[in-house]
Design brief:
- By secondary structure, this protein is an alpha/beta fold.
- A six-stranded parallel sheet has the order 3-2-1-4-5-6, with helices on both faces.
- Strand 8 and strand 9 form a beta hairpin.
- The radius of gyration is 21 Å and the shape is globular.
Length: 332
């Protein structure tokens, strides 16, 4: 101990170095670091661990965040290539994987990223057997299934970020069309986080007023107001952002942080996240799709039994079939 420290500080008790709200982020790319800064600014963790295979970049990102410690309230930020730095995490966020390229669908990424999950998930669970996991890497629904199988964790503790962001984009675009803040525009997108996602037009409302009661053709091809284009924009939005800036990051980080807050604060908020849907809406296979889920300290504690009309149910089944046709041939 330095002489200055000895003269300045008198230790009265031993430090308790155990973390109560440790979060590990695996993958220090654009999305991982977006999650990191959003989580830090929301003061959701007392220890943040970053894991990545690119050691120099990883150390640089860690130092960059540490140097900003004056401006948030997380006392410990660590990083490492070895998964032991993740030990005793309450929550692990998986953003590692090959990045979706311009014009590439999320589903075409699948086998490459399955191989990556095989290399990281067992070690993470070994060091944090009681953790919850949020999967962000694409294709998120299939990879959430893969992580569930590789981890041995209960399905309720393996959560795909799913359609939480799709629904946020949906509400933003509805708000733009109406001139109303998105927090006051209510609407849900379920199913695949991707091209076969399902907009629930029957539930879209502002202040409890269902838009379908004002325009029964809302969201259909015969709707002269072309509300259906909003869902098309939701589906295409990630492709557009990737085309223009090379990747998506900020909205993903904000969406994931929304989920983190609900889990670590035990808020029991309802989110459209990817969870095991076998036995729901006539689905017989073990697949993960987004449905409204209540999130709390144990992960997915409950699901909301949304009534789907015939068209919505058919689209949800089609979304399930789309994923199953890829998932059934996976090797891992």
């Amino acid at each position: 101990m330095s002489m200055v420290k000895e003269q300045l500080i008198e230790k009265l008790t031993e430090d308790d170095r155990s973390s109560q709200r440790k979060i590990t982020i695996v993958g220090a790319g654009a999305i991982g670091m977006s999650c990191a800064i959003c989580i830090l600014l929301k003061d959701l963790t007392d220890e943040l661990a970053l894991v990545d295979v690119a050691e120099d970049k990883l150390k640089g990102e860690m130092m960059d965040l540490q140097h900003g410690s004056l401006f948030f309230h997380t006392p410990k930020i660590i990083s490492g290539k070895d998964y032991c730095v993740s030990a005793n995490s309450k929550l692990i966020i998986i953003t590692a994987g090959a990045r979706q390229q311009k014009g590439e669908t999320r589903l075409s990424l699948v086998q490459h990223n399955v191989t990556i999950m095989k290399s990281i998930i067992p070690a993470l669970v070994h060091h944090s057997p009681d953790c919850k996991m949020i999967i962000v890497s694409n294709p998120v629904d299939i990879l959430t299934y893969v992580v569930w199988k590789l981890s041995g964790l209960p399905a309720t503790r393996v959560i795909g970020s799913g359609c939480n962001l799709d629904s946020a984009r949906f509400r933003y675009l509805i708000g733009e069309k109406l001139g109303v803040h998105p927090v006051s525009c209510h609407g849900w997108i379920i199913g695949e986080h991707g091209d076969s996602s399902v907009p629930l037009w029957s539930g879209v409302n502002v202040a409890g007023v269902a838009l379908k009661t004002l325009n029964p053709k809302l969201g259909t091809d015969s709707d002269t107001d072309q509300w259906k284009n909003i869902h098309r924009q939701v589906v295409e939005s990630a492709y557009e952002v990737i085309k223009m800036k090379g990747y998506t990051s900020w909205a993903v980080g904000l969406s994931v942080t929304d989920l983190v807050g609900s889990i670590l604060k035990n808020l029991r908020k309802v989110h459209p996240v990817s969870t095991l849907v076998k036995g729901l809406y006539g689905i017989k296979e073990e697949i993960f799709l987004s449905i409204p889920c209540i999130l709390g300290q144990n992960g997915v504690s409950d699901i909301v039994k949304v009534h789907l009309n015939n068209e919505e149910k058919a689209l949800f089944t089609k979304s399930a079939d789309t994923l199953w046709n890829v998932q059934k041939d996976l090797v891992f």
